[in-house]
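Below is a filled-in request sheet from our internal design queue. Each sheet records the structural input a requester submitted and the sequence that came back. We keep these sheets so that new team members can see what a complete request looks like end to end.

REQUESTER: design group, bay 2
PRIORITY: normal
MODE: inverse folding
CHAIN LENGTH: 221
BACKBONE (tokenized):
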């Protein structure tokens, strides 16, 4: 196995063991060794999936999930990661209203989507987490974005997403905005149930879809 491969494996273990110091040290080393920021995020995410499994089998508790979230945010905050999240904003290509739906407090995936969208010159109006449908509708009416992005990683938030789409229809706004939903559990079937225009299991893919909607290929702006 290559040096970088070994580093990545150690990193997944360090995240799953919630060893904050080691995660940051290995992340810095991996970045110096040439890992792409996006690949680093994917590696840390692998560790998060293990944390989730350990929570499911009751080895870990809610405090451990909180710790895992904090560690991920520290990795996102590393100086070298700004390469991924640096907002160039040369020419604004479009506006996205973004939020995590009601009932869901997870914001890491949403924040990654936001960072990547801003890097691709979208203006993002981030309305936070646990956002009720009324607040989504209000922001869409006020901001007139081309795109509404909803994040939700708890499986039961599919219904909250559907309710937002229904509320947009009731407010006569559905035709004025493309809707993308994101979360690793989403499928084309859930997307159709929600009534969204697209779904993404990955923030990077989500941003690519948004660019396609505006007929822009990545890096073109
Ligand atoms: Co929670 N949690 N959590 N948690 N948590 C999960 C999601 C879980 C899978 C763990 C498990 O049991 N295996 C499970 C959900 C089970 C399910 O729904 N079937 C779970 C649970 C049960 C819970 C609580 C209910 C626990 C409890 O209280 N008993 C509770 C719910 C609170 C609530 O939201 N109402 C809870 C709480 C929390 C914390 C707040 C403590 C913390 C979050 C901290 C934070 O976000 N600031 C937390 C954490 C850290 C996790 C895990 C371990 C990691 C989540 C994460 O940040 N992953 C998670 C385990 C797992 O994911 N397997 C788990 C990294 C992040 C990059 O991934 O957000 O999925 P993610 O984003 C991905 C994609 O989803 C996608 O792109 C990203 C990758 O590029 N994406 C988009 C996301 N949004 C997008 C938007 C887009 C496009 C793509 O376009 C708009």
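RETURNED SEQUENCE:
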């Amino acid at each position: 196995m290559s040096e970088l491969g070994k580093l990545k494996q150690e990193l997944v273990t360090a995240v799953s063991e919630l060893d904050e110091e080691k995660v940051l040290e290995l992340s810095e080393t991996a970045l110096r060794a040439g890992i792409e920021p996006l690949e680093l995020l994917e590696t840390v995410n692998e560790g998060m999936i293990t944390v989730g499994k350990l929570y499911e089998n009751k080895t870990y508790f809610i405090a451990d999930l909180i710790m895992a979230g904090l560690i991920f945010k520290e990795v996102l905050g590393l100086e070298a990661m700004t390469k991924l999240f640096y907002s160039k904003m040369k020419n604004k290509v479009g506006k996205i209203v973004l939020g995590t739906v009601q009932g869901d407090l997870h914001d890491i995936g949403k924040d990654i989507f936001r960072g990547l969208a801003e890097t691709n010159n979208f203006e993002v109006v981030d309305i936070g987490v646990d956002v009720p449908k009324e607040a989504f509708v209000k922001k869409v009416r006020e901001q007139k974005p081309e795109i509404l992005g909803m994040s939700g990683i708890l499986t039961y938030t599919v219904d909250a997403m559907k309710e937002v789409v229904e509320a947009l229809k009731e407010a006569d706004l559905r035709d004025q905005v493309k809707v993308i939903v994101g979360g690793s559990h989403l499928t084309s079937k859930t997307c159709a149930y929600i009534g969204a225009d697209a779904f993404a299991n990955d923030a990077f893919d989500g941003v690519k879809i948004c660019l396609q909607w505006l007929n822009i290929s990545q890096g073109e702006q």
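SHEET NOTES:
- The beta strands are 94-100, 122-126, 147-151, 178-182, 198-200.
- The chain is about 55% helix and 10% strand.
FILED BY: M.R.
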